[in-house]
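haha ok so turns out i had the wrong file open the whole time. this is the CORRECT one, sorry everyone. sequence first:
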Amino acid sequence: MPVVAGAFSLVMALGPAAPAGTAAAMPQPLPSGATIPLGGGYMGAGYLSDAQSFTADTRQIRFGAEGSASTQATQPGIDVSHYQGTVDWPSVKSAGIKFAYIKATESTTYKDPTFSANYLHAYRAKVIRGAYHFARPGLSSGAAQATYFAGNGGGWSRDGLTLPGMLDLEGGCSGKSVSAMRSWILEFSTTYKAKTGRDVVLYTGPSWWNTCTGGWSGMSARSPLFVAHWTGASSPSIPGGFPYWTFWQYTDSGSVSGVSGAVDRDRFSGDGARLLALANNTL
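then structure:
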């Protein structure tokens, strides 16, 4: 089955308010000039702000050699953080959700307060899940952040229910040049693979990737692409340097039984067997 290429999402600078009754960790302020408080990052937290100043790549999906990737063939998923509060994972599973990415860490000091419960209960409900790290390239090295992520939820095991960890890249270029950002991402990727045996998934989109890395093709052979593009279109736009997408975040305002309020909705580009193969590293 194909893996399609797509555009990425980065949301509002401070993110949505936590649902009523949610014990969300208070974000810590970043150094002056930063827009998303430490602890406030999540998949899509920089999408709108990035899109205001970055130029998107308007190319459309390119099908790979494995065939066509219609939305009917894709597997439905969600991504969550502490902003979703307590998630009823058996209800999520019953609603037909096949996979979930769950926020684990930021920088080298912050762990999402709902990660452990979400990760465990998704596993018990038989939802294939993976952890993600919200990148802070301006705060510490890629190696340091990959080490922290791998040791605080980003590990991997071949158990049929664990996806490789994901690196969330959005919210500005952190004052880094194109070459420096490429080096930071490569260092994170290399360190993560050394510690887990898996290539990290990259969440980004044309706006951020084309600006901050110059449409770099250096990760396309290493990392599956998780692209964010909030649209009702049948396919997303593609960041430069990637021939196809593997995951697509297509809305930040989805609804799923078991999650209170809005939740990001995602797709995997292949069928259930392909999703399981990615989880088990047997592709």
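The chain has a mean pLDDT of 85.
again sry for the mixup
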